[in-house]
Design a protein that fits this description.
Elements (H helix, E strand, L loop, with lengths): L11 E7 L16 E7 L10 E4 L8 H9 L10 E5 L3 E3 L4 H10 L3 E5 L6 H11 L4 H13 L10 E9 L2 H18 L8 H11 L5 E4 L9 E3 L18 E2 L2 E2 L7
Parallel strand pairs: 1-2, 1-4, 2-3, 6-8
Antiparallel strand pairs: 4-7, 5-9, 6-7, 10-11
Helix pairs in contact: 5-6
């Protein structure tokens, strides 16, 4: 099922989702008339004059995590343009993201990814989630065992975040997302694995390290353009970047943060 019609007047899409009313609806404070703003939800009562509210009946019987990850890794079933900026539902848009879009296009990169400023090693994030996010240790052990069997290089510096991505509608990006989604389904069957960030990082690092990445840090979601908020509130989070940890594919990377 496709929820979009090609609109040649739009240059890019901005997509956010919110299921089970986990977040509040945050309207953009400034919009770009050449961007489409798509908000996928299971709440039929939501209304906005800034977002295009999309209700997907295929998601009705899925768990909240299955709904989230289906949308996150099938962006172009909902977007009418060939470039999508995906934002986590806890992010407030304060200014037009035209500059981010143009910087990405001018870079000639395949994908825009946020570099994790807290961890270089995804094992550390599993430990953090187990300790602070009520994530079962059995799930962490299962995923780490899987990664070990896959011969993932745990000592290679660099780790990604999934709260913001910039994707082109290309075969390359669709393959990354399809592999990630299928792996999450495999690890979580009969449902889906709850913690997608390390699996996405593994897929990109292990299979696609030749791609050109437009790298940015958490500073992008703590700028005059975007604010990362505490869940279901308008209160900003405090999460400064640790620049010394900005690695990808084992190498220090140049960041392309918005001011």
């Amino acid at each position: 099922m496709n929820f979009c019609q090609i609109n040649r007047l739009m240059k890019y899409s901005i997509l956010m989702y919110n299921f089970n009313n986990y977040e509040i609806l945050r309207d953009p404070l400034e919009i770009d008339d050449e961007a489409e703003y798509i908000y996928v939800t299971d709440n039929k009562t939501l209304k906005s004059d800034k977002w295009k509210i999309v209700y997907d009946p295929r998601l009705e019987k899925l768990s909240a995590f299955e709904k989230c990850y289906y949308v996150r890794f099938h962006l172009f079933e909902y977007c009418s343009t060939d470039i999508c900026i995906y934002l986590d539902g806890s992010i407030q848009i304060k200014r037009s993201l035209r500059q981010l879009y143009e910087n990405f296009v001018n870079s000639g990169c395949d994908i825009g990814l946020s570099i994790n400023g807290c961890f270089n090693d995804l094992r550390d994030d599993y430990h953090f989630w187990t300790k602070h996010r009520n994530y079962p240790k059995s799930c962490a052990d299962k995923c780490l065992h899987f990664l070990k069997l896959e011969k993932y290089d745990f000592d290679r510096k660099g780790y990604l975040e999934c709260n913001i991505r910039i994707c082109k509608n290309t075969a390359l990006n669709r393959e990354i997302d399809e592999r990630t989604y299928d792996t999450l389904k495999f690890l979580g069957k009969p449902g889906i694995e709850r913690f997608d960030q390390p699996i996405y990082a593994y897929i990109v690092q292990h299979y696609f390290s030749n791609i050109k990445v437009f790298c940015f840090s958490r500073n992008t979601i703590m700028s005059s353009y975007l604010t990362w908020c505490w869940h279901n509130t308008a209160k900003p989070r405090i999460a400064p970047i640790t620049e010394s940890k900005c690695y990808l594919f084992g190498n220090r990377v140049k960041l392309n943060d918005l001011e």
